[in-house]
Amino acid sequence: MDFSTLENHSGNYITPLFEEKFEDVVWSVQIRWQGNSQRVYLYILLEFQSTIDQRMPLRLMHYVACFYDHLLKTRATTASKGLPPIFPVVLYNGARRWNAKQDIYEMVRPEPPEFLRVYQPRLRYYLIDEGRYTEEELNQRPSALSGLFGIENAATGPGRLQRAVDRVVALIQADPDKARIDAIVTRWLKRHLARLGTGLDLSELNSLMEDKDMLAENLENWREQAINEGIQRGLRQGLEQGLEQGREAERRETARNLISMNLLTDAQIAQATGLREAEVRALRAENRPL
């Protein structure tokens, strides 16, 4: 691919058939292979929802058809000249692993007999499921994009996040276009940390390369705050559990006393103590002489 020929074609090519849940980005680039040269369209869908859309193959087929119709209506090409190749890409960053079909043909069930298969629609998209990449796999890809994936995958804990940030800073420093990449990634990271609800004041963070120590200090403060909050939450839960256990023991002792008086039924004792009737029966069985 000759990336110097990249051209943005983004726009709204989607009809009201589906609710708008995706951001579509369309670029074209000149590619060469076996002595031939042709412009290819990259149709990229950015899926930021927490749920997986099982209709994705159908959506892609509809989107691609709408885009081809747009090219014909704007006379970017004609039916006689032919339609350009399209590379559909779905970028997904949800917590669950993507399990939707990747080809519209796979949604046709039951599979038709052989003589009908040639008439069924076929359109496959390329899936980038960020969460499927392990830390080791990302480390084998020395690019700023793999660094961003690492940061998103590390959102479960401040310690992992700091390691991911250190790695992306190293990747930026090694990039020949470091100034531009640094500005883009810094802006993205500030928004990402805000979405995580860290509560960090990063208004003075303007460059990951120059302000990495300040960011590290902020992340460390966030880590300590998370630890302290966890300890406090654990103490509260332990205290509540202890009080509840004490109340439970008191209810059982009261039930035993009422059982020994042999004046109330199990249902009446359960109502008086707040125990379940089955628990009262079990306590009564314990008090019976052998």
Please provide the ordered H/E string of secondary-structure elements. Answer: EEEHEHEHHHHHHH
Fraction of residues in H or I helices: 40-55%
Q: Enumerate the strands of the largest sheet in spatial order, edge to edge or round the barrel.
A: 1-2-3-4-5
Report low-confidence residues grouped into runs of 5 or more.
Answer: none
Number of DSSP helical runs: 9
Reported for the largest beta sheet, the result is:
5 strands, mixed
Oligomer: single chain
Overall description:
The structure is a single chain. With 290 residues, this protein is an alpha/beta fold. Among the domains are: 1-132, no CATH class; 228-287. It contains nine helices and five strands; from the N terminus they run βββαβαβααααααα. It has helices at residues 56-73, 114-117, 135-139, 144-153, 158-173, 178-195, 212-261, 266-273, 277-287, and strands spanning 2-8, 23-33, 36-47, 86-92, 126-129. A five-stranded mixed sheet has the order 1-2-3-4-5, with no helix packed on it. Helix 4 packs antiparallel against helix 5 (158-173) and helix 7 (212-261) packs antiparallel against helix 8. The longest helix has 50 residues, at 212-261. The chain is flat. It starts with a strand and ends with a helix. The mean pLDDT is 79.
